[in-house]
């Protein structure tokens, strides 16, 4: 779809709302949501919100940035943005991603191959501003005009020039939160350019230079995590209380009575969960504890500040916050003297600490990190657990691949081997593995609940995943069949929970979501009662 | 330099600019600090795992196990990409229909230039390059020059024209294209078109070009060239100077995007070179302005600063 009202010139100068989303143009879903009226409605932004906050991109709000009142304020904000832009191309300030960013800025051939890979762009009915190269093209023009030597002259000749206005900066601020950084686009690029990286680099200008970011990621996210211990606000004392409660709950559910190892110095493994699990899906850490206890794993949990919450939201918006949290994770492991850190079921925590932090942690902080998926496979395949897959026979399962774990770190097969060992009714979505679609909650979207953003997430960024889930179960879509989307990632589960709720998927189709370990425990013969409680939560 | 034609001098200069600019660009990129990992799977050198996109992270205790690497598979993937533009074939077939012949044609034309140079060296050493030569090698050089030139010209011209028309008439491409994108293709097409004129208007176009290449190699004054050939060479000189500063230099960038970003999965193990580079990065001075960042010190200091809830 070509929309000539969204040219770069319009983006920089046209006052008012640039794009109005039309749900009728969204790609249709399969039954039972094949009629638009059956889909969740997108609520319009209130007049008050519209007046108060910058929302002139598409009338969706994530950043909640108050509209500047004077031209002077606007000018200062633009100058600050340009100052951050320049720092993005300095090795001292951005050694972390300078090389990949420079390559993407210099060599994109504008072939638009990436467009077809982007679920947000396609599912929205090809709204042009969501095209992966749209925001990259703006950043590239800014780079060519304001950063490169002689930029204003040469960019004008080549046609790559752009004028930095507050209208442009404000829209770009919101536009940097319309991409889940799933990097499907980068996977298809013949040159190797990376529009997902561009999204993150733009967020860095706003956060690291202007102090503008999403509250759930920064103020209520990494800042709280570093100060209190967890982005959930759970301090170490509350965490220890929580663990005691979960120990009791495990005993009630399974008749297994045991203490969860806490701060055990010299243990082989430090297991770190996404702390959101303790509050939203306690059955997941419970299942880990049951499996590790039954398999005789030498591990410990930590009650050290940040050591009990694997999240690292900096991975989505800010290198400094990212490094701070990664160092705290390593510090917790160092204090306990463990041989390795194992990440429980959280995709971004996997990638953050195992892959990206690999170039932040040095010396004694460089403690090996490993995925729980591989350890679980080893446990399950070793025969240390008595498993009977037929205990899951009433459930048809599918695997949702968390982008961070799969496309971005190549952990594909272990979780499948485990799932196949405990489920006789497993089926794959199309596409899956490294070519999967994001849950729609990637890059912080799953925890962004402000204003009308959840409507956008449910209808646009999560739409491709919704279609995949409906398609994979289409022959048994009725509520008489139990269906389980196995998502070994807290953020994905959060996104699926909200999306399923908004569509009424559990009530209408009996589709539940959950982690991998719950299915494993459900198949353990030494536990009498079913571990998975088939109810909406 | 007495006796050199302006065109010769221009060509020496453009070659010099091209080589220096490309080397400078390559050095600039390769001297950038080691970045944080940004892997993207599948990574073809993952032995036995690449076919489904797996990595060494699928192994427990991966850091103590020998890393199984398949160089052959990586070379195979590179070969597919370099020769067939494989990712475009898979993901954007309508554009690949033009992009593949364009790129393949360009490779053939590079081969054509190599054959011209070889022929020129033969002629400098007193051997005339022609089909009637008694030497089999000379005959091969003659025919390879002709075949590579014609085949390369046909494929590259077809591809470049198709790419230009796609940019002009495909709405999705038109809206992202700027003057420079059209200019690049028009310049190439102009060189190809004049090449065609030379072929039909003059008896010995290859010999003329070979003579010019020979003059560059031998540092001897060039003979008088037909006007079309001279114009073609002028345009090629402009292309050589211009190309390194455009995205057409992606043949260089692609090495880095694939090998230094997407497929760069070397782990930072204690005491290895990567760890040293990481320490260097953490020693850089940081100067971001947001209040939650301690500016003025090093990255390591900013990352270890104690945080408060009020940031």
Report on the architecture of this protein.
The complex is a heterodimer of chains A (537) and B (311). Chain A has 537 residues and is mainly α. Helix content of chain A is 46%, strand content 5%. Chain A folds into three domains: 206 residues, no CATH class; 160 residues, no CATH class; 138 residues. Chain A contains 25 helices and eight strands. In chain A, the strands form two sheets. In chain A, strands 2-1-3-4 form a four-stranded parallel beta sheet. In chain A, helix 3 packs across helix 11. The mean pLDDT of chain A is 96. In chain B, helix 5 packs antiparallel against helix 7. Chain B is an all-alpha fold and 311 residues long. The chains are: A mainly alpha (537), B mainly alpha (311). Chains A and B meet through helix 3, helix 4, helix 5, helix 10 and helix 11 of A and helix 3, helix 6, helix 7, helix 10 and helix 11 of B.
Strand content of the residues of chain A, in percent? 5-15%
Largest β sheet strand count, sense and barrel closure of chain B: none
Separation of termini of chain B?
68 Å
Mean pLDDT of chain A: 96
Question: What helical percentage do the residues of chain B reach?
Answer: 55-70%
Order of helices and strands of chain B: HHHHHHHHHHHH
Q: Which word captures the global form of chain A?
A: globular
**How large, in whole angstroms, is the Cα Rg of chain A?**
23 Å
Q: What is the CATH C level class of the largest domain in chain B, in words?
A: Mainly Alpha
How do the helices and strands line up, and which of them pair or pack?
The complex is a heterodimer of chains A (537) and B (311).
Chain A lengths: L7 H6 L33 H6 L18 H18 L2 H4 L3 H10 L11 H5 L8 H16 L3 H8 L7 H10 L8 H5 L6 H15 L8 H11 L7 H19 L14 E4 L3 H5 L2 H13 L3 E2 L13 H4 L1 H18 L3 E4 L3 H9 L13 E3 H11 L12 E5 L13 H10 L3 E2 L25 H9 L1 H10 L9 E5 L3 H14 L1 H5 L1 E4 L2 H6 L15
Parallel strand pairs in A: 1-2, 1-3, 3-4, 5-6, 5-7, 7-8
Chain B lengths: L5 H25 L40 H14 L1 H6 L1 H32 L11 H34 L1 H4 L4 H23 L3 H14 L8 H16 L7 H13 L10 H10 L16 H6 L7
């Amino acid at each position: 779809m070509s929309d000539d009202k969204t040219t770069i010139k319009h983006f920089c100068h046209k006052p008012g709302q640039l794009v109005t989303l039309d749900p009728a143009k969204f790609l249709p879903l399969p039954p039972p949501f094949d009629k638009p009226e059956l889909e969740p409605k997108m609520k319009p932004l209130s007049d008050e919100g519209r007046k108060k906050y910058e929302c002139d991109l598409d009338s969706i709000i994530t950043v909640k940035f108050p509209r500047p009142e004077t031209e002077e304020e606007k000018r200062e904000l633009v100058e600050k943005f340009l100052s951050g832009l320049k720092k993005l191309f300095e090795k001292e300030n951005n050694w972390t991603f300078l090389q990949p960013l420079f390559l993407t800025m210099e060599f994109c051939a504008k072939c638009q191959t990436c467009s077809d890979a982007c679920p947000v762009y396609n599912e929205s009915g090809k709204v042009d501003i969501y095209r992966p190269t749209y925001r990259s093209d703006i950043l590239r023009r800014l780079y060519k005009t304001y950063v490169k030597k002689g930029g204003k002259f040469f960019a004008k000749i080549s046609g790559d020039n752009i004028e930095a206005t507050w209208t442009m900066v404000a829209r770009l601020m919101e536009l940097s939160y319309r991409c889940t950084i799933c990097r499907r686009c980068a996977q298809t690029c013949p040159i190797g350019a990376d529009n997902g990286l561009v999204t993150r680099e733009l967020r860095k200008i706003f956060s690291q230079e202007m102090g503008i970011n999403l509250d759930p990621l920064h103020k209520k996210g990494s800042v709280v995590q570093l100060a209190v211990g967890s982005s959930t606000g759970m301090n170490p004392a509350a965490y220890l209380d929580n663990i005691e409660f979960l120990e009791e709950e495990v005993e009630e559910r399974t008749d297994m009575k045991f203490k969860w190892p806490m701060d055990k110095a010299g243990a082989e493994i430090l297991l770190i969960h996404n702390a959101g699990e303790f509050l939203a899906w306690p059955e997941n850490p419970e299942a880990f504890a049951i499996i590790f206890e039954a398999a005789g794993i030498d591990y410990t949990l930590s009650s050290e500040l940040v050591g009990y919450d694997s999240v690292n939201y900096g991975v989505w918006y800010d290198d400094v916050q990212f490094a701070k949290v990664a160092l705290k994770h390593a510090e917790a492991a160092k204090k306990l003297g463990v041989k390795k850190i194992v990440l429980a079921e959280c995709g971004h925590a996997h990638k953050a600490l195992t892959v990206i932090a690999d170039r932040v942690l040095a010396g004694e902080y460089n403690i090996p990190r490993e995925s729980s998926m591989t350890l679980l496979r080893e446990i399950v395949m070793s025969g240390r657990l008595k498993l009977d897959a037929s205990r899951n026979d009433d459930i048809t399962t599918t695997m949702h691949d968390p982008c961070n774990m799969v496309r971005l770190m190549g952990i594909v097969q272990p979780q499948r081997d485990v799932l196949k060992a405990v489920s006789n009714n497993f089926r794959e979505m199309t596409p899956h593995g490294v070519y999967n679609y994001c849950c729609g909650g990637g890059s912080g979207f799953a925890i962004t609940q402000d204003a009308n953003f959840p409507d956008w997430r449910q209808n646009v960024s999560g739409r491709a995943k919704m279609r995949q889930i409906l398609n994979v179960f289409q022959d048994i879509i009725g509520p008489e069949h139990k269906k389980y989307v196995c998502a070994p990632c807290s953020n994905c589960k959060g996104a699926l929970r909200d999306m399923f709720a908004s569509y009424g998927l559990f009530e209408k189709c009996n589709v539940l979501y959950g982690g991998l370990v719950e299915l494993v425990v459900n198949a353990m013969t030494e536990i009498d009662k079913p571990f998975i409680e088939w109810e909406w939560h | 330099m007495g006796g050199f034609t302006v065109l010769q001098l221009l060509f020496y200069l453009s070659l010099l600019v091209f080589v220096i600019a490309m080397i400078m660009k390559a050095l600039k990129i390769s001297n950038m600090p080691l970045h944080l990992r940004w892997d993207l799977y599948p990574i073809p050198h993952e032995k036995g795992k690449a076919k489904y996109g797996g990595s060494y992270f699928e192994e427990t205790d991966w850091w103590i196990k020998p890393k199984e690497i398949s160089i052959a598979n990586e070379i195979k993937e590179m070969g597919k990409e370099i020769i067939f533009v494989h990712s475009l074939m898979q993901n954007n077939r309508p554009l690949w229909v033009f992009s593949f012949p364009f790129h393949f044609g360009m490779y053939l034309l590079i081969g054509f230039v190599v054959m011209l140079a070889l022929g020129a060296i033969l002629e400098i050493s007193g051997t005339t390059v022609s089909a009637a030569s008694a030497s089999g090698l000379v005959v091969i050089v003659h025919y390879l020059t002709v075949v590579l030139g014609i085949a390369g010209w046909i494929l590259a011209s077809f591809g470049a024209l198709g790419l230009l028309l796609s940019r002009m008439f495909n709405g999705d491409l038109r809206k992202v294209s700027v003057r420079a994108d059209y200019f690049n293709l028009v310049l190439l097409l102009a060189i190809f078109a004049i090449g065609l004129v030379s072929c039909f208007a003059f008896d010995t176009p290859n010999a003329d070009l070979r003579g010019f290449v020979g003059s560059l190699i031998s540092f001897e004054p060039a003979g008088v060239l037909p006007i079309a050939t001279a114009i073609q060479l002028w345009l090629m000189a402009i292309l050589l100077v211009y190309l390194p500063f455009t995205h057409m230099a992606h043949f260089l960038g692609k090495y880095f995007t694939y090998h230094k970003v997407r497929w760069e999965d070397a782990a930072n193990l204690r005491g290895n070179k990567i760890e040293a580079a990481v320490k260097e990065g953490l020693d850089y001075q940081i100067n971001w302005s947001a209040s939650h960042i301690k500016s003025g010190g090093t990255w390591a200091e900013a990352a270890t600063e104690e945080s408060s809830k009020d940031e």
